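Project standup — Tuesday

K.O.: blocked on the structure for the chain from last sprint. Re-posting the sequence here as requested.
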Amino acid sequence: MSEKLVQVEHLRQYFPAGGFGKHKKFVQAVDDVSFDIYRGETLGLVGESGCGKTTTGRTLLRLYEPTGGRFTYDGEVIFDVEQKKFVNMLPYRKKMQIVFQDPYASLDPRMTIGDIVGEAIDVHKMAANKKERYDIIIEMLERVGLNSEHANRYPHEFSGGQRQRVGIARALAVRPEFIICDEPISALDVSIQAQVINMFEDLQAEMGLTYLFIAHDLSAVKHISNRIGVMYLGRMVELADSYELITRPLHPYTKSLISAIPIADPKTARESNRIVLEGDVPSPLNPPSGCRFRTRCPYADERCAAEVPEWRELEQGHFAACHHIEKCN
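H.V.: unblocked you, prediction finished:
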């Protein structure tokens, strides 16, 4: 996994939130986020609700136009805001796909399952005739555990788990290389979640896929991811190998997240040291100066308020942004 498929540098995504002129306000949803994804790997992206995970994924696909930064896919610059370079996305829609979070809102209720999966096949002219189109649709449905009978039904006839499988089949229909999985299991029952995660792993092995797997459930992310990045209030605070991050987190926010993972054994759970954060997440409309985590961090001092912590590699492949890594560990 030495070849970089995805390179994200200093990504920023601000949304206007009222005001005029110099009083204009912006929601700083994503601010200066950088990471790489290697071909064939899964990068997990975690953090509490509102930290910018979904916005990061959607901005990479230009479902939102980026405010700043540069995104390179397989050696080609998709956008570079500072250089005012933006490529035509249509050819890249075949290579990059997304599975949306809500299986109820992301499927058109007036279209049959066959037409939902076949829409992208039509747009990219991937089938020479109707039979070939039908064969691709059935193949994709079977890959995700559905069958040919389901192709003529409508979304309201399916459960949440089945609808999410349809969403995955739709993403696979154009045979992409890179899929952004935007909290694909958060709307599903726990019993279905494991099935869907296992299916993602099987599809990755069969089709050579690369994933950006966005979720707020760390226990699911650690199961599927090779590496994990942790976001807080629009910024990346830590990035490391999956096992390394779970067993030896360096950033105080990551430590708190990992301490909240439920433990099945009651005796072990009672003895575990749960780190409860004080206060609420600040508003992205007016984030704290310096380190954004400082208002909830037990180690914060004047330096944290004055300086933005540098994003640095503390050990091989283990990055974090904190002024007091030594004090925290």
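K.O.: great, moving the ticket to review. The chain has a mean pLDDT of 91. The first strand starts at residue 4 and ends at 16.
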